[in-house]
Amino acid sequence: MNSPILQLLVLAGIAVFLILRLRSVLGTREGFEKPAPARTDAQPSRPRNFDVIEGSPDRDITDHVDEGSPAADALHRMKRVEPSFNVGEFLGGARSAYEMILMAFETGKIEDIKPFLSEDVYDSFAGVVQAREEQGLHIEAEFIGVRETGLNAATFDEATGEAELTVRFTGQLTSVVRDAQGEIVEGVPGQVKTQRDIWTFARRMGSDNPNWQLVATGE
User: Fold this and answer.
1) CA nearest to 77, candidates 91, 63, 93, 61
2) Does residue 137 contact residue 178 with C-beta atoms inside 8 Å?
3) pLDDT means per 10 residues in the chain (219 residues)?
4) What pLDDT, on a 0 to 100 scale, did the predictor assign at position 129?
5) What is residue 54's predicted lDDT score, i.e. its pLDDT?
6) In this structure, are residues 212 and 90 in contact, taking their beta carbons and an 8 Å threshold?
7) HEC letters along the chain
8) CA-based nearest residue to 164, from 76, 74, 30
9) 63: Cα within 13 Å, side-chain hemisphere
10) Does residue 153 contact residue 71 with C-beta atoms inside 8 Å?
11) CA 67 to CA 201: how far, in whole Å?
């Protein structure tokens, strides 16, 4: 047998020996690794980063309103009726609704948002849009973004299940008003203006309809 073949056989034998040694020390892993056996000694385990304590403050509420406030109490009662309700998720949806409703009003396309408005708010918006059209005015607007969204107040009527959440918005947009001849009568093209609004949304908690409606607007 020539020398190269002999060297290969020797190396192969060493490799097999090392593999067997490793298997005896590390064991084998097939599929999902088995869980570690339960601790039987008295040594304490490493503490968790946090503990869930029954009756502790709900951060989803206290992150947005003061603990113990009337608004916090209303939110707690809403969650008892509808446990899946989440304040943070609501505010995210309200932020998107603000842009959609505001731009529909600016451009006069309020039919698109009618399902998200109470009858009174829709009639108010429709009256303003009609008055603009009668004067031959139209608005060119571009939404820039929302700088702030915050919860101002919350109320809940347990008898009817009606919840109302009042949200403050600080939005930014560009807007110019043109007359029938296309001349600018208000605003500066490209100039960003800041707009502050306080809107109230309402919904019956526990109902199958997940949509909140805008029921009041203010500043």
Assistant:
1) 61
2) yes
3) 49 46 36 36 42 68 95 97 96 96 94 94 96 94 95 97 98 95 94 96 94 91
4) 95
5) 52
6) yes
7) CCHHHHHHHHHHHHHHHHHHHHHHHHCCCCCCCCCCCCCCCCCCCCCCCCCCCCCCCCHHHHCCCCCCCHHHHHHHHHHHHCCCCCHHHHHHHHHHHHHHHHHHHHHCCHHHHHHHECHHHHHHHHHHHHHHHHCCCEEEEEEEEEEEEEEEEEEEECCCCEEEEEEEEEEEEEEEEECCCCCEEECCCCCEEEEEEEEEEEEECCCCCCCCEEEEEEC
8) 74
9) 9
10) yes
11) 22
Domains of the chain: 59-218 (3.10.450.240)
The total of other beta-carbon atoms located within 10 Å of residue 142's CB is: 13
Residues in the chain: 219
* pTM for the model: 0.72
Structure tokens that stand for 95 in this block: 């932020």
The confidence score (pLDDT) of residue 213 equals: 96
User: How confident is the model at residue 7, as a pLDDT?
Assistant: 53
CA distances from 58 to 33, 71, 91, 159 (A): 36, 13, 16, 24
